Amino acid sequence: MNILVVRTDKLGDFITALPTMYVLKHHNPKNRIVACVAPLNKELALACGFIDEVIVDDGSMPVYELSKKIKDAKIDASITLFSNTRVALAQFLARIPIRIAPATKIAQIFYTHKLKQRRSEVKMAEFEYNLQLTKTLFPDINLEYKKPLLEFYDAKDSYGNFCKEFGIVKEVIAFHVGFGGSSDANWNLDEYEILIKEVLKQEKYQVILTFGPDEVALCAKMKIRLKNEKVIFYISKNGIVNFAKLISNFKLFVSTSTGTYHLASLVGCPTLTFFADSLFASSKRWKSVGEDELQKHFMIPHAQDERNKLFDNILEKLKTT
User: Fold this and answer.
1) pLDDT tens digits for range 156-206
2) Among residues 99, 113, 176, 321, which is most buried (max CB within 10 A)?
3) How far apart are the C-alpha atoms of 274 and 256, rounded to whole Å?
4) Residue 273, SS3?
5) What CA–CA distance (Å, rounded) separates 11 from 87?
6) How many Å apart are CA 142 and CA 200, to the nearest integer?
7) Considering the domain boundaries, does residue 44 fall inside one?
8) Which of 93, 111, 137 is the last residue of a domain?
9) Sheet holding 113-115, edge to edge
10) 23-81, pLDDT tens digit by residue?
11) Would you state the pLDDT for residue 183?
12) Do 133 and 165 fall into the same domain?
């Protein structure tokens, strides 16, 4: 069966879709999994052995053009994990016989099977809601998946070259101070500076600050703040897969709940992650797809005194890492 899985939003959202594609492939290895993704996720999708083909949708191509791409893939069934009217209509026009999606808004009229999930109630994590949709197609499907979900045979070699280039001889704790997507809680740069310097005091680890290719200005700010410290500043310019290979070898990845957190968990790196103090943006909804015991989650309170208490708690945890 040729199965289209649609998730065309940001990096973290796409990673929550990967367990769905994995279980569909492993339910029957003859299933051909076609992922419809945003351009920024194409490289990562192509690196997943359980994805057979990738359709890129930049969100601006005409519906008929997207529909033709889908039709050319000869899809038997589709599962749309997060829908909008445009992608729903494209699948309808492509005449996919079985079209599955959450029952949301007007887009649901274009699907043959709609599942009421009420994700706003956060009864499970986002990736678990995604997995639930596969039961509509295969009621007996096993929803278990391997962890880490994504591994690279040459990750150690890539990391070894990275360590030689930057003179790294200790285990790495990485801080990613930027954020995007649905993340709406983070420490400010003053607070991150304190956390980073606390780790540096221990002299046990190499501290690396990581930045996306569009965070050059943020990197420059942190260089000024930490100009006298033994910190490596790394702007990821060699693609998301190369970045994932490096992260998979880190001791710890510290960040807010953004795409790089999901990437770190995907490849098995322990994470220390900050979430907003609301159900919508909480760890209950946005925990990542890796092992639970490797994820440490903290909700940043709105009240300043409670925020200060949590910050002190995080500081203590970093002292004993």
Assistant:
1) 999 999 999 999 999 999 999 987 544 457 899 999 999 999 999 999 999
2) 176
3) 4
4) strand
5) 18
6) 45
7) yes
8) 137
9) 53-56, 32-37, 2-6, 77-80, 98-102, 113-115
10) 999 999 999 999 999 999 999 999 999 999 999 999 999 999 999 999 999 999 999 99
11) 47
12) no
Q: Which of 116-120, 166-170, 247-251 has the lowest mean pLDDT?
A: 116-120
Structural tokens at position 230: 């033994």
How far apart CA 183 and CA 69 sit, in angstroms, is: 32
Q: Which residue has the higher pLDDT, 189 or 280?
A: 189
Query: What does the pLDDT average to over 105-120?
Result: 90
Could you tell me if 298 and 280 are in contact, meaning their C-beta atoms sit under 8 angstroms apart? no
Q: Report how far residue 17's alpha carbon sits from residue 38's, in angstroms, rounded to the nearest whole number.
A: 13
My answer on whether 121 and 256 are in the same domain is no
Could you count the other beta carbons within 10 Å of the beta carbon of residue 311?
Answer: 16
Nearest to 259 by CA among 284, 286, 278: 286
- Kindly report the three-state secondary structure assignment for every residue of 286-303: HCCCCCHHHEEEEEECCC
- CATH number of the domain that residue 68 is part of: 3.40.50.2000
Output the pLDDT for position 184.
54
Percent of the chain with pLDDT over 70: 98
Domain count, the chain: 2
Q: Is 161 in the same domain as 302?
A: yes
Beta-carbon contacts of residue 66 (< 8 Å; ≥ 6 apart): 57, 86, 87, 90
Q: Which residues contact 63 (CB under 8 A, 6 or more apart)?
A: 86, 89, 90, 93
List 58's β-bridge partners, or say none: none
Cβ atoms within 10 Å of 105's Cβ, excluding its own: 11
Residues 254 and 292 grouped into a single domain: yes
Residues 128 and 203 in one domain: no
Residue 165 structural domain: 155-319
Question: What would the pLDDT profile of 287-305 be if each residue is shown by its tens digit?
Answer: 999 999 999 999 999 899 9
